Every structure is written in structure tokens, then in C-alpha cells.
Amino acid sequence: MNNPGARPVSTPYPDTRPRALTVSELNHQARHLLESSFMQVWVEGELSGFSRPSSGHWYFSLKDQKCQIRCAMFRGANQRIRTLPREGDQIRIRGKVTLYENRGDFQIIVEHLEPAGLGALQQAFEALKARLQGEGLFDPARKKPIPATPRHIGVVTSPTGAAIHDILTVLKRRCPAIPVTLYPTAVQGQPATSDIVQAIARAQQHGLADVLIIGRGGGSLEDLWCFNEEAVARAIAACPIPTVSAVGHEVDVTIADFVADLRAPTPSAAAEKISPDQQDWLRRLAEQQGRLGQSARRLLQRLHNQLGHLSARLRDPRRELLEKAQRMDELELRLNKAIRDRLDQQKQKTDYLLQRMSAQSPRRTLKTVREQTQRLEERLTLATRHQLRQKDERLQHIAQTLHVVSPLATLGRGYAIVKDDNDRIVRKAGDLETGSQITARLGHGSVSARVTEINSSSE
Fold first, then answer.
1. SS3 per-residue string spanning 327-345
2. Helix (H) or strand (E) segment spanning residue 381
3. How confident is the model at residue 420 (pLDDT cuts 50, 70, 90)?
4. pTM above 0.70?
5. How deeply is 213 buried, as exposed, middle or buried, from its count of CB atoms within 10 A (0-12, 13-18, 19+)?
């Protein structure tokens, strides 16, 4: 029987089952594991189920004989792809392995897409590029400057392609006075490599062009491959004429671009880069004409003003001469006065110097020096005598002191100094032996004796 007011009874035992993940947590952890394990991969296969919604993103599957995987290439990445892929194409993709968490779909986020057959061409491109760069063919120091105003332009390209049409259109608009010579060549296919090399050689032999445009319009990597050939690269590098590479569209890069003296993104851009703009020249000429006219008018006005000023200053020459003569008279009077004043000053200075010389006569100086010398001699004599007297008294005092402590004084009182036959002083009888030869120093003289008896007692 149910009781609406009764409380639910709690379970006395805790739930010990392991915590279950939510679906979102599981998908998030799986995505993190995939992205950290596969940072970047290259995958090759057949394109299937391609779709392109209004957002601009691409969605498709990549499959082989056994399996398939979903792929997504967002708009920012697929805008760099020039040719839209088609169902069944064999392609190579580079991207990151991930998981679309909302549906739990395993997929690849594609960053780059190319036809499967292009891998070998790309490797050949990179190998040749590295080798030529190592030889210094790409060094900016070896590139020749492009003339600012070419006298004759040479073009190495197909006579029927869009490139020559674009170049001539631009040159006709910018500077139609510059002559153009076409050196026709194939720009695609097997014979294109040798044709381009021969066309460059013909331009050199012709000797007219001072700048050479080498290129063609856009196309696939295979279409542009002749401009990646080593023979074409070396022909461009050895060409003494400054060269401009204009191959394909702006995104296309070939070996010819690195070797040429200047790279243009398109043939039209090449014509823009090397040709002066006649409209700009005409505009600058008009500006220079205007400036020249203004400068001429200002110069004429300045000369007119100077002429009026000089005309107003022009005076009668006789009046000018009279003023100069008067000025000379004034200067003569001032010169005479200056000379007299100078002579008076010199006379006063001479008198003053004579007075000083008389007051400082050598005779007076000699007399004073003699008197000082005489006084100094007297003082020196007195001082010398005083010093001698003091030294004599000190000497006598020292002599008396020495006499008191002298051994000779002791000997004078009846003592003697005894030495053995080795000239050593004998201080006690025990130092001698019977028969030893001794010498006794007395107060006056000395005596020699031989020891006949030794008494060692102190009495």
C-alpha cells in the first residue's frame, strides 16, 4: 500500500561500479589520442563522394580496394588548388588525422591536395633546385640589372599562345615605340626544352635585344615542366642579355624563375616591369615644361629687377673720381698723424728704457755682488774655524774614552795577553800542554816561552 507522505529509504551500501564516460568525453579523448599520434600524414587513394556545399568547404572520401576514410578540406586550404578534383581521380593528400566529435567520425583534415602522379616531378624539381643553388646559379650577386629604358625587347615564347598577345598588348599601351622581336618556340611537350634553348641562342646571335622575356601562360605542372629542365636553366644563366622569367600564373614557380635576372608573376607583369609608361613620361614632360616656363619667367623678372636697381645706382664717373680723391686726402692726413703719433710713442718708450738701463747698470750690480761675496767669505771663514774647533774637541774626548777601555792601557798596568802557537788567546791553563810554545804580549813588547809546568788550580 502506497503512502504519499513516506520518505524513500536510502540504500545502506555505496555504489562501487566504475565511473562511466559520457559519449562526449570518450570522443574528446579519442580525438586527442589520434591528433597526438598522427601529427601529419600523406595518404594516396581514389577520390570518391566529392561534395562542395555553399560554404566553400570540400568533403570527400579517399579509398583503395579494401578501405576508405572520410576527408574534409576547408575553404582556406582548397582555394590554393587550381583544378577542381573529379570523381575517381587518383590523388595524394597531406593532413592531420582527427575525429569529428559530434558524429564520432574518423576523418582527415586535408591541408594539401595534388594528383598522385606529381610526386616524382616535385622531387625532381627540388633536387635540381638544390643542385643549381649549390652551384651559385641563384646568387643575387650574379644577376644582371634590367635596363630602365630598353631599346629593343626580345620575347621567347609560343607565337600562338596568350603570352605574346598579353605582352604586346601591355607594351602597346605603355610604350609602343619600343621594338619587339619574337623568337618562337614550343613551350609545352617533349621538344619544348631544346626549342627554348635554341631560341635563347638565336636572340644572342641576333644581338638586338637588350632585355629578353622568357615564358608562357598558365597550366599544370606537367605543362610548365620544360621551364624546370636543367638545359633551359643553364641557357638562361649563361645568356649575356638580361633575362626576365614570366612563366604561368602568379602562384606558379619554376627553376627558370630562380635563374633569371628578374622574375615576373605573369607575362603581362613582365611587360609592365621592363617598359616605361609613356603616359607617365608625357605627364612628367608636361610638368617639366610647366616648371621650365615658371623658372624662365622668374629669371626674367629677377633680371628685370636687377637691371632697374643697377640703373638707379649708376652715377656720373667724374663725381665718383672726386669722391675718391677726397677720400685719399683724408686717408693721407690720417696716415701722417698716425706716423707722428707712433714716433712719439716710440721716443717715450726709448727714454723710459734708457732710464731703466741706467738704473740697472752692470757696474752697480758688480759692486753689490763683490760686497756680498766678501761678506759671505768672512762668514764662511768664521764658520769653518768654529766647525774645526768643535771637531777637534770631540776627537780628543773620544780618544780619551778609547784609551780608558783600550787593552793596551790594561797591559800598561802589568798585565799580559798570552797566545798559543796557533795565535789563539789562552784564557785558562788547561788549554795548554807541557812543551807548548806560547807568546806573551806586554805593555811594551812581547816575549816567547815554552811551557814546562801547568797548574790548573785557580789559586
1. HHHHHHHHHHHHHHHHHHH
2. helix 362-405
3. confident
4. no
5. buried
